[in-house]
Write a structure and sequence with these properties.
Blueprint: H1 19-25, H2 54-79, H3 84-105, H4 121-131, H5 142-158, H6 170-178, H7 181-191, H8 203-223, H9 237-243, H10 248-255, E1 258-261, H11 263-271, E2 276-281, H12 287-301, E3 305-311, H13 324-336, H14 345-364, E4 367-370, H15 384-387, H16 389-396, E5 400-404, H17 405-412, H18 424-427, H19 430-433, E6 440-445, H20 458-465, E7 476-481
Parallel strand pairs: 1-7, 2-3, 2-5, 3-4, 5-6
Antiparallel strand pairs: 6-7
The protein binds 6-O-phosphono-beta-D-fructofuranose (F6P) and magnesium ion (MG).
EC number: 3.1.3.-
InterPro entries: ARMT-1-like_metal-bd_sf, ARMT1, ARMT1-like_metal-bd
Keywords: Hydrolase, Manganese, Metal-binding
Length: 492
């Protein structure tokens, strides 16, 4: 059952601001890195009470709706349980979710996370105590408030005895993948057979062929990010099909929607690599992860990489994000599953062939799945170097770190009112400027307010001509920062 309460009491909030005020304010920005903190980003933060922003729509309507759907999912699980101890334990989880719903809809102050023994508690509570004392869901920066809500959702289960790992979004994630047959088999039919160049090509021709394949696969991997369950609640099979068109014609038509586009430089760099390491900071499970796998598979088979490291989430996060369970589920479903009742035996064989190859990469250590707690905190990646130095040091060893999706982009850019034409390297701050910063690429379909790296006037023109262009998922960016990979990492 959907949530009953989705209205907010906005009585105690600061006065409304509009987009023009924010632009005027912008003259005092960016703040220097030493004056930047999670409550004071380099440019003004988006906050839930900014009524013109997607932050407002998310905090006041989307999050309560998502939570209501989560409660409905737990009801369904409860109805299928027979053991009394497990049932009463789950009832307590539901009560905690209802309390969270009250806090959200009544715009309560952000309290510390209850210590459930998890390793991320110090990171969370340090940040709350230092920057968000007395702040509530609507006046804390949107990015933090939204992440906090997902950590509180985890707390509803982590305090239980039997349901600590329960994922209220797992059913939806599996279901959407099983309704993605058309695009799944379209890709399988092209990439299942082991990759090899046509006979008789010389080295230049092979390089040219690699460039073409890489360009196309990068776009498959990019647009795979469109199927985001947090935005598209109750998608029809037809909607899914439209979002997942992976054919060449479709890709050519959508390339013009890539507003900030470093694909050329990215292609030249990646296709010059041999036996390197690429990291993916993953976004969504199911179809998007499947596209990431197809991409990573080709990077291994072409000899460009001999190692791919995938970074997933430790907790159910922003509805669709990949957890270890989603990762295992997808690999095993490709090999053993019966998800696609209408698929032919030949189609299924191709899917199994790919699935087996991918599992083999994992066994051989060519593919590695990591899930550091930092990825599920409210910190942006401006603080990766200081709050998770081990991750920074590890990423420094990579030849390229690809950040997938909208949320990762928000975290790279501090989710603030950065002017559209600001360069990507400037917008990601220390992730580009710290000694030892790796090469970073963002593959993002634009689904929320923060946008940078655009040619002059492009964003302003879209503001005038196309309302909602920043949340439609129709536009995208492929942005690259060269970083300072040849320098030694320094920690103060
Ligand atoms: O709730 C808003 C949001 O965080 C946006 O960043 C985006 O609309 C969505 O949720 C997540 O998108 P993605 O899965 O691409 O990070
Ligand atoms: Mg996501």
């Amino acid at each position: 059952m959907p949530a009953a309460k989705v209205m907010l009491n906005l009585g105690a909030l600061p006065p409304k601001q509009n987009a023009t005020d924010m632009k005027k304010d912008g003259q005092n920005y960016p703040r220097t890195p030493s004056r930047t903190n999670p409550n004071a980003p380099p440019w003004p933060a988006y906050r839930g009470y900014h009524e013109y922003s997607f932050a407002h729509a998310t905090m006041s309507v989307r999050l309560p709706t998502i939570l209501g759907k989560g409660i409905a999912d737990v009801h369904q699980t409860l109805n299928q349980e027979s053991d009394e101890e497990r049932i009463t334990d789950l009832v307590a989880c539901i009560h905690r979710m209802e309390d969270l719903m009250d806090d959200l809809t009544e715009n309560s102050k952000l309290r510390p996370i209850i210590d459930d023994g998890a390793g991320d508690i110090p990171l969370w509570n340090k940040e709350i105590a230092k920057y968000f004392q007395g702040k509530d869901f609507m006046n804390a920066p949107w990015l933090f408030a939204e992440a906090y809500k997902y950590r509180r959702l985890r707390e509803c289960f982590s305090l239980s005895k039997h349901w600590v790992e329960y994922d209220v979004f797992f059913r939806q994630k599996c279901d959407t993948f099983s309704r993605s047959a058309t695009a799944v088999f379209e890709l399988a039919s092209r990439f299942a057979q082991p990759f090899k160049h046509a006979d008789g090509l010389n080295d230049d021709e092979k390089l040219a062929a690699n460039k073409l394949i890489f360009r196309e696969l990068t776009q498959v991997c990019l647009w795979g990010n469109s199927t985001d369950l947090s935005l598209l609640i109750d998608m029809s099979e037809e909607d899914i099909k439209k979002l997942q068109s992976t054919g060449g014609e479709h890709l050519a038509a959508t390339e013009k929607n890539i507003l900030g586009n470093h694909l050329e430089n990215l292609t030249n760099y990646v296709t010059s690599m041999k036996g390197g390491r690429i990291d993916f900071v993953l976004d969504n499970a199911g179809f998007e992860l499947y596209c990431d796998f197809v991409y990573a598979d080709w990077l291994i088979q072409s000899g460009i990489c001999d190692q791919i490291v995938f970074h997933g989430k430790r907790l159910p996060w922003f509805v669709s994000d990949v957890t270890r369970k989603d990762w295992d589920w997808l690999l095993n479903s490709c090999v053993y599953g019966y998800l696609f009742s209408e698929a032919s035996e030949a189609d299924m064989d191709q899917l199994r062939l790919m699935g087996r190859r991918w599992k083999q990469y994992e066994k051989e250590g060519k593919w590695r799945y990591e899930q550091h707690p930092f990825w599920c905190t409210g910190y942006t990646f401006w603080d990766l170097h200081s709050e998770a130095p081990d991750v920074f040091l590890d990423l420094h060893k990579s030849d390229l770190v690809i950040f997938k999706g909208d949320l990762n982009h928000r975290k790279l850019t501090y989710d603030c009112h950065v002017p559209y034409a600001t360069s990507f390297a400037e917008a990601i701050g220390p992730m580009a400027s710290q000694p030892g910063a790796p090469r970073v690429c963002s593959l993002r379909t634009i689904k929320s307010d923060v946008v940078c790296g655009l040619p002059k006037d492009v964003g302003e023109k879209l503001d005038e001509e196309e309302a909602g262009w920043k949340i439609s998922g129709k536009y995208a960016v492929i942005l690259l920062s060269e970083g300072r990979p040849d320098e030694k990492v320094v920690f103060q």
